[in-house]
Amino acid sequence: MPPCSISLSKWWKLVTEPYEVCKDVYVVGDSELSHPSDCCVYLLDAGDLVLIDSGAGRSFDKLVSNIERLGFEPKRLKAVLVTHAHIDHIGSLRRFQKEFGVQVIAHELDAGAIEEGRGVAAEAYGVEYTPCHVDLRIQGSEETLQFERHDLKVIHIPGHTAGSIAAYLDTDNKRVLFGQDIHGPYYSEWGADPAQAKLSLQKLLELKADILCEGHFGIYQPAAAVERYIQGYLDSL
Fold first, then answer.
1. Strand order in the sheet with 136-138
2. What domains appear along the chain, each with residue ranges and CATH number?
3. 169 vs 166: CA distance, rounded Å
4. What secondary structure does DSSP assign to 63-89, as a single string?
5. pTM above the 0.70 mark?
6. What is the pLDDT of residues 95-146, one digit of tens each?
7. 103 Rama sector, left if φ>0, alpha if ψ -120 to 50, beta otherwise
């Protein structure tokens, strides 16, 4: 990984292969690795394989290939954790569910959009969304997902959408935060609420993560860089 003093925009485009972030955490998709419309797609090796989001829908085969290139068997995929119901994060959910039998996990407040295809902003990306059943609905403000080797803590962070969530785990003496779309945008027509977003970003700051896996702008570390990144967007709201 690049030192935090290097601008992300200068090094990110050099990355053309899926890569390891830290122990058990990998990047398998983003606008360079899988498709220009994709969010950052993360893979967690928790004994079970867990994906964080699924891209915009045009990159399913590439995401599977990138998982294989890291040496993992896609048939080991256990779940996809959906951070929020925008098309660039949910587009391939149905195919992962159909072909690998993954459990789709999302917050109950965004589950309706995932299952019905309403308000997912597919028209903004020019793609057709295939609705997908949500197998497990996160309820309330916090929940722990237990996998074979890691517990993944899920927290409700409304603001970008009503049912936005983040997740974190502690591995190799580091706290890794899948914060996803911290940068927003916070458009009301896409379900955003800036007042709620302020509270949610403060909640993320309080986690004191060592590594941030962001939704579109890659990896931030160490902890001081994570704090600066989140605080910058909090101050802008």
1. 19-22, 25-29, 41-46, 48-52, 77-81, 103-107, 136-138
2. 8-236 (3.60.15.10)
3. 11
4. HHHHHHHTT--GGGEEEEE-S---HHH
5. yes
6. 999 999 999 999 999 999 999 999 999 998 999 999 999 999 999 999 999 9
7. beta
